Amino acid sequence: MRVSIDPARCQGHGRCYDLAPDLFGEDEEGYAVLTDLTADRDVPADREGDARLAAANCPESAVLVHEEARA
Amino acid sequence: MTVDDRFTEEARAQRIAQAQLGTFNEIITGPVSDWTTDFSHLEPEYAENAIEIWDDLRERCPVAHTERFGGAWLPTRYEDVQAIAYDTEHFTSRAIIVSNVRPPLDVAPVGLAPPISSDPPFHHDARKLLLPAFTKANVAKQAVTTEAFCHSLIDGLAGRDVVDAATDYGMYIPMRVIADMLGFPQEDSEKFAHFVENALEGANGPLEERQARGMALSDYLFEQVRDHLDNPREDLTTYLLNAELYGQRLSPQHVVGTMTLLLIAGIDTTWSAIGSSLWHLAKNPEDRKRLVADRSLRPKAVEEFLRAYAPVTMARLVKEDVELGGVQMKKADWVLLPFPSANRDPERFEHADEVLIDREVNRHAAFGLGIHRCVGSHLARMELTVALDVWLDRIPEFSLADPAAVRWSAGQIRGPRALPLRIG
After folding, report:
1. ipTM for the complex?
2. Is A28 near chain B, with CB under 8 Å?
3. How many A-B residue pairs are in contact by the CB < 8 A criterion?
4. What residues 104-143 of chain B have any CB closer than 8 A to a CB of chain A?
């Protein structure tokens, strides 16, 4: 599984970094960013549940979950 | 004495003399005859029954209308509220509190309280100035002082069996936090309460009265500006006085408008959220006991209280005629954005009418949707979390002392303004 943030949708509600602060972080204006655990790599298998939870709680549907693994 | 030509007495007097007031409508008050064609969010029956009114309208008239306020709409479905919040082409934020005055067109795109009153593209730049101060990481730095303040409020309740959770507790927390951020004297909370009431609950009051009270706010902010020019310090007021946009210092209207926004928007809203949450827990002992016993459940409960009792209804003015939700909206019509109603739409939320404090998936819109997402949302969450933590840890046993004495605010910010609780 991979995750990404759609910057055109993210408004900085911060639900993703509230719920899964190891998978998502905030930039200096509060917009969501990926972390070392999620940038350019697959979500760790034992963290996939929280990645889905973060996506399901984003009010702007800006957290995107791609179920297929990185090649 | 520092001279800042934006904030001399003369410059201010000139601004006041030149101010354009906008377009006025007849003030219509009194009981609502039909919620689908004559709604008013400023009448006492709305304050008491807003949730039932939204649920009813969502079923049979999802975009209600009123001739009051010179014409206004009330959409109640999530889908319609979301569509309007995202559509900055047909809807302007030039005014965001429905009243009987529509500000002149030329206040756009800055508006009277930037960035909440601003439209793109100016909005983005004005908002960018504020965002860094309100990130989760930055507001977390205030959690310790907020917690200590909450404890001091609870200490002050010692020896009493019945306390008012709204006016003895919840109200002071956001006042203290925002006074600290703006660098205003902490003892001015009584004044803040009047300013807020005038701007929000008093939105349909007589014009002369509103203008006189608006001038009192303006005088107060001018005094704070002058004090900060003389004694610059590490706070948002000094920050705004020094801030630049497009290579120039902010206009004086921008500085004072943003100060107004931060003072007004931060108080009633968070006060309401704290009060609604404690009201729910006072009425539902099972939920209260679960949260007292299990701190790990509290973050989910906070989100559920924000969903079910979202305090804030925003508003827009129609910029261009547009069809939305099956109705024809005309230029200059008001449109309310009742986020709390959107949050209770069964099309969007399972068991929408039930408060489930362990709800896992909660894509609520309490802080708005789209570009105007509440700038203070991380601050509000911190305050609500700390306020509930301290209360539950210090006063685990409480119930409504007199359910009939609970009074909810009318207008666009909804929460208990009288909340007598029996404690201990």
Report:
1. 0.97
2. yes
3. 49
4. 128, 131-132, 134-137
